[in-house]
Amino acid sequence: MTPIAGLGSDRISTRWGKRMPWYVVGTIIVFPTFAGIFIPPEYINAKDQSGNFIHPMANQYWYITLPALFNVGWAFVQIAHMAVVNSLSANPKTRDTMVNNRNGFTYACNITILLAALLAFAYVDDPVAQFRYMCYLCLSIGTFASLFFICTIDEVRLTDTANSLERQYQE
Q1: Can you give the pTM of this predicted structure?
Q2: In the chain, helix, strand, coil percent, each to 5?
Q3: How far apart are CA 89 and CA 95, in angstroms?
Q4: Is the distance from CB of 146 to CB of 79 less than 8 angstroms?
Q5: Read out DSSP for 109-127?
Q6: Residue 22 in contact with residue 161, Cβ under 8 Å?
Q7: φ/ψ of residue 14, rounded to 5
Q8: Best CA proximity match to 16, nearest among 165, 151, 163, 162
Q9: Which pLDDT score is estimated for 154?
Q10: d(Cα 90, Cα 95) in Å, to the nearest integer?
Q11: What is the sign, positive or negative, of the torsion defined by CA atoms of 154, 88, 110, 2?
Q12: How confident is the prediction for the chain on average, in pLDDT?
């Protein structure tokens, strides 16, 4: 899926930019599929008195389909997020700084999630509740970060400014 997202974001241009639509669509796919993996409807995991799934095919289709859709959305988000750096600056030093900042925030989020997991696993006895709490935390951080990115990155304006500065520099 990643090559398709990359080719699509390179070739399709909209009034919101080349990358932002892919980011938004990917985000819209990621949130419900991620939540659905860890917080499924009751009927998906419902079991009878002997411990067998009441709807085994629904369970199987649910857990085959949602991770696959999640990966499609994640590919859209990641490709758009990584590729937008090249549109926002022609200066390699500035690009390196943006990529370093992105990586730094990624590491900070990973450490936050790992610390939260440590606390959840230490203080919450129910394994299902542990993963649901982690899912809620991931969705909260992801919602904040995605909305921040969508609301603050004006790809078209920033790309136009970067191209204008590059043309001035070339002259």
Answers
A1: 0.83
A2: 80, 0, 15
A3: 6
A4: no
A5: HHHHHHHHHHHHHHH---H
A6: no
A7: -125, 180
A8: 151
A9: 86
A10: 7
A11: positive
A12: 88
